[in-house]
């Protein structure tokens, strides 16, 4: 959300399609990951998320707060995923159903997806070379492979990673508890 939050909300309430597109772009990937955790299927998750955005759009005038919109989208996705699972898997054990439906599970999933959203947004703001190194590392490439793809030395790749880590650490200071997990994955 690059514009003034108040103006952004006003535009959403007025039905501005550009503002809706910004909202969609802001949450679509995180909501798809969230839904995919429940469903295990990317296409089904995307369908659920698209339906959630349609449900939001039908009620867009009712929301006067950005966080209410975010909560609404996550709750609708969660609810629709659980309904889909219940309809698909009548044989789902009751204990597993309760665990998936618990508030603690939901809260943990939302926090994790929010952290991923912030993490990937922070990566987008890195300089191109650092962003490329981090993206290649996230794809599982080792430093030597990254260096070869980018036409730079392994030392340069290491330096880019180190500087990117510093910048991402600053960007994600509110998510410090997950940052080490992300970078453990990147530097192994």
Question: What is the secondary structure topology, with strand pairs?
Answer:
Layout: H1 5-13, H2 17-39, H3 42-58, H4 66-88, H5 94-101, H6 103-124, H7 128-138, H8 143-150, H9 154-171, H10 176-187
Give a summary of the structure in a few sentences.
With 188 residues, the protein is mostly helical. It has helices spanning 5-13, 17-39, 42-58, 66-88, 94-101, 103-124, 128-138, 143-150, 154-171, 176-187. Belongs to the sigma-70 factor family. ECF subfamily.
Structure description:
This is Sigma-70 family RNA polymerase sigma factor. One of its GO terms (biological process) is DNA-templated transcription initiation. The structure is a single chain. By secondary structure, the chain is mostly helical. It has two domains: 1-106, Rna Polymerase Sigma Factor, Chain: A (Orthogonal Bundle); 125-188, Arc Repressor Mutant, subunit A (Orthogonal Bundle). Helices cover 80% and strands 0% of the residues. The chain is built from ten helices and no strands. It has helices spanning 5-13, 17-39, 42-58, 66-88, 94-101, 103-124, 128-138, 143-150, 154-171, 176-187. Helix 2 packs across helix 3, helix 2 packs parallel to helix 4 (66-88) and helix 9 (154-171) packs antiparallel against helix 10. The longest helix is centred in the N-terminal third of the chain and has 23 residues, at 17-39. The radius of gyration is 19 Å and the shape is globular. It starts with a helix and ends with a helix.
């Amino acid at each position: 959300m690059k514009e003034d939050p108040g103006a952004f909300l006003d535009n959403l309430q007025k039905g501005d399609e550009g503002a809706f597109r910004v909202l969609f772009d802001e949450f679509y990937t995180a909501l798809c990951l969230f839904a995919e955790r429940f469903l295990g299927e990317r296409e089904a998750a995307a369908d659920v998320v698209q339906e959630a955005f349609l449900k939001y759009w039908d009620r867009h005038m009712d929301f006067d707060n950005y966080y209410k919109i975010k909560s609404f989208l996550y709750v609708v996705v969660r609810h629709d995923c659980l309904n889909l699972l219940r309809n698909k898997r009548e044989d789902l054990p009751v204990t597993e159903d309760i665990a998936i439906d618990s508030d603690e599970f939901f809260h943990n999933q939302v926090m994790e997806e929010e952290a991923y959203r912030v993490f990937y947004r922070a990566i987008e703001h890195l300089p191109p070379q650092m962003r490329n190194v981090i993206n290649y590392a996230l794809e599982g490439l080792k430093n030597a492979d990254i260096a070869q793809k980018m036409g730079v030395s392994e030392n340069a790749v290491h330096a880019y990673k180190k500087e990117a880590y510093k910048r991402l650490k600053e960007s994600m200071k509110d998510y410090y508890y997950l940052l080490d997990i992300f970078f453990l994955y990147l530097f192994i």
